[in-house]
Design brief:
By secondary structure, the protein is mostly helical. It is 62% helix and 0% strand. It has 5 helices and no strands. The chain has helices spanning 9-14, 17-39, 45-57, 66-82, 92-95. The longest helix has 23 residues, at 17-39.
């Protein structure tokens, strides 16, 4: 997992469409980047890194969404609990909103 987008619960409660809208915007931007990455020679260090990684992991080196990152999220939750960063074990649904299901 490369990163996360954080939105306050209060914002989602008042504007439930925000999660899906952000997800769609980032997905469109990534799709454009991936198309460029796979059709033109890499022009910077980051693109070179991800073009090389694509040869190992497949066309999408940075998969989006809960399903694609579930194992990593579960490991993150487990580690956070073991290191006492969270007071109890937490479900994925408590930690993340699945914008693909909103």
């Amino acid at each position: 997992m490369h990163g996360t987008i954080v939105v306050k619960d209060s914002v989602l409660a008042e504007h439930p469409w925000v999660a899906n809208s952000l997800y769609n915007a980032f997905s469109r931007a990534k799709d454009e980047w991936l198309a460029r990455l796979h059709t033109t020679p890499p022009s910077n260090a980051s693109d070179k890194k991800y073009a090389a990684l694509s040869k190992v992991v497949g066309l999408d080196p940075l998969p989006y969404g809960l399903a694609a990152n579930l194992k990593t999220i579960e490991a993150l939750e487990s580690t956070a609990f073991k290191q006492q960063l969270t007071p109890r074990r937490m479900s994925v649904a408590e930690l993340f909103v699945d914008p693909e299901k909103r």
